Amino acid sequence: NADQAMYAAKSQGRNNYHYFTPVMEMAAQKRRLLVNDLRIALAEQQFCLYYQPIIDFSDGSLHKVEALIRWNHPGHGLVSPKDFILAAEDTGMIVDIGNWVFSEAIQQVAKWKANGQSIQVSINTSPVQFRSDDCDQDNWFAQLAAMRLDGSSVAVEITEGLLMEASTQVRDKLLGFRDAGVEVSLDDFGTGYSSLSYLKQFDIDYLKIDQSFVRNLDPSSSDLALCEAIIVMAHKLGIKVIAEGVETEQQKQLLIEAGCDFGQGYLFSKPVPAARFEQLFNPTLVNE
Ligand code: C2E
Ligand code: MG
Ligand code: MG
Ligand code: MG
Fold first, then answer.
1. By C-alpha distance, which of 69, 66, 68, 5 is closest to 41?
2. Nearest ligand for residue 66 CA
3. Alpha-carbon distance 21 to 34, whole Å?
4. How far apart are the C-alpha atoms of 60 and 125, rounded to whole Å?
5. In 3D, which of 202, 165, 172, 169 has the Cα closest to residue 186?
6. 65, 57, 102: which is closest to 281 by C-alpha?
7. Which of 48, 218, 234, 245 is deepest in the core (most CB within 10 A)?
């Protein structure tokens, strides 16, 4: 093991090995195992998507569904994206994983459509995908066309950091999505550093208020003031608002009173496998 750690340290650069403390060796070793397992996971189809409803506050109906990746690890069981997305981004593997997520999600949407249920699926994306030429947007659009799906069957969730980058590559891809009718949602709003001017510049369709602002919502909280301000600002820019992490009836009521358009959270449903989602949300109308 010590030999292996030393080998890896040296392989990163001839003079780097002496910076490795035992704790760092452990972390590096764990990371290597993870990366190796991720390669296997892609090859052996160990990933799956869970689906979480996003509810229209105006009538309680299903508005769209967010696809959330899970890793069915043969030894560790179901692994959360929080435990592998960063490593997948660092190694660039997120590009292949993201391509898999897209294909899988639209195949599911096509199945639902064939069963008479038109649902938009919202997929999470990483900035790494936007920077990579291996994330081929035309290929994505060709897949949609091959399944006779409109661009509007899909929304892409991006992070605030991506808007800050504003490279031509990022800009072109965002415009490409817009031209194809794919909607764009700004995820985890309020946790990054977005300059408000980016919201206008990039024609965002939805803004998702991060769950950290929703968690402690009560009538006298400053979080409520923040949510109200975000909603007013978004609406003035023609952007619709989704609240994440809605867990209680009170949070829902306060958000509705604040003018929030849509909600997502355990109050409605946890993310569930496709089969379970169908049991819960077909027909499309959700009973309040
Ligand atoms: P996110 O996109 O902000 O997704 C929302 C997260 O909040 C999900 O965690 C969901 O399970 C959780 N959540 C939903 N409702 C509630 C609630 O009422 N209370 C609480 N406490 N949590 C709630 P999950 O599935 O573990 O995903 C974590 C993050 O991993 C996602 O955050 C997203 O950033 C990333 N992720 C998931 N799937 C993908 C993917 O396919 N590609 C990429 N690049 N990232 C992904
Ligand atoms: Mg998301
Ligand atoms: Mg989020
Ligand atoms: Mg728009």
1. 69
2. 2
3. 20
4. 27
5. 202
6. 65
7. 234
Closest residue by Cα to residue 122 from 187, 48, 213, 190: 187
Structure tokens at 134: 């291996």
Could you identify the atom of ligand 1 that is nearest to the CA of residue 52?
14
With a threshold of 0.85, tell me whether the complex ipTM lies above it. yes
Q: Is the model's pTM score more than 0.80?
A: yes
Residue 34 contacts by C-beta under 8 Å, 6 or more apart in sequence? 84, 87
If you measure from the C-alpha of residue 209 to the centroid of ligand 2, how many angstroms do you get, rounded to a whole number? Answer: 11
The H or E element spanning position 139 is helix 137-146
**Whole-number Cα distances in Å, 135 to 131, 161, 253:** 8, 18, 40
* pLDDT tens digits along 130-159: 998 887 999 999 999 999 999 999 999 999
Contact 45, 251 (CB under 8 A): no
Q: Which residue has the tokens 């809605």?
A: 246
Between the CA of 284 and the centroid of ligand 1 the distance, in Å, is: 23
Q: How much distance in Å is there from the Cα of 68 to the middle of ligand 1?
A: 6
**Residue 188, Ramachandran bin (φ over 0: left; ψ between -120 and 50: alpha; else beta):** left
Output the CA 61–ligand 2 centroid distance in Å.
20
The first and second tokens of residue 255, run together, are 């958000």
Under DSSP, the state recorded for 58 is T
Distance CA 135, CA 245 (A): 30
